[in-house]
Specification:
- It is a single chain.
- The chain is of the alpha+beta class.
- It is about 35% helix and about 15% strand.
- A hairpin with a 2-residue loop joins strand 5 and strand 6.
Amino acid sequence: RFPETVRIRVGDDEVEERPCFSPAGFRYAVSLVRSRSSFVDGSSRLLPYLDYANHDDYDSYELVGGGIGTLWGSAKGALLKSGKALNVGDEVRISYGPKGPADYLLDHGFVPPMCRMISEGGRKGGGGGSAVAAELSFEVSEADRFRDDKLDVLEYETYDLAPMEPLQTFDVAGGPGSTGEPDPAMMQFLRLAHLGGKDAFLLESIFRKEIWGFMSEPVSEDNERGAVGAVIEACRSALGEMDEVAAVVALDASEKGRLCSMVGQSERDALERTLAYVRQEAEALDLKEYYQVRRLKSLGLDSDWTPEDDVGFGGTRVPGGADYDW
C-alpha cells in the first residue's frame, strides 16, 4: 500500500510533507519526471545520480546509451561525457538537448542563455541564429475520401521502421537567422494530406513505392494552394490564441512571468516569420514547377515535336508517309 504522504527535501535543509494521490501530488510527480528524465536509446528514461548534472549550452554533450561491465557480464547503462578538459573539483555539466525556450521552461523551469539570446532577438552578447520556437500540428482529415490510402502510405511507405501517424506536429523556427521557411517534412506531409481531385491518381498502387518521394516537391497548383493555405490558417489560429493570453501574462511581474512573456514573444516571432514566408509562397504558385512538368521533362517530352526528332530512332520517315500506316 502506498503512503498517503511523502517527505521531500526542498533545498539543503528544508523538508516538506506532500500528499501522494492528489492533483498537487500528480502535478509534482509529472514535473519531476519531465525535469529529471533524459532521452536515451530512443526512450525517455529516469537515470538516478546522472540526473543531478546541470545544463550547459557550450562544451557539453547529451547523455547517450552505453554498457556497464559487471562481474556477471554487461548491462545497459548511460554514458555521461564532458565536452571539455576538467580539473579536480570542476562541475561536470551536460546538454539537456536541442529544445526551444518553451520546452526548457516547461520541462526544467528555466530558459538557458542560448535560448534567451535567440528569444530576445540576439541582443545578448551578439551571435544569433534560429531555434525551435513554436509548433504546428496537422492531421489527415477523417472526412477525406482517400484517408485509408493516405494512412497506408504513412504507415508503410514513408521512413524505414518509422511509420507516421495521421496527426503530426512540426517545429517552426524563429530568431535573427530564420527566414520563416517551413520544414520540408511539414510541406511533404501536407501535400499528401491535401492530395485529391485530379491528383488522386498518384494514390494508385502502381505509385505506392514512389508517392512519398513525389510529395517532397510541388504536385499541382491546387494541391500546393491547399498545403500552403493550411500553414497560413494554422499560423493565424495560433497567433489568435496567443493574443487571448498575452494580456494575462503581461500582468505577471514575477521571474516566471517574465520568462513566459519572453518565450511567448519568441513563439510569436517564429509564427509571424513563417506566416510571412508562406504568404509570399501563396502569391507565387504559378511560378512553381509541378509534377506533370517534371514528369514530361524526365521522359524528354517537354518540347514541341519536329520531324528531325525521329532521326535519333533510326529513320527519317514522316508519320503517315507510307501505305502501311494504319
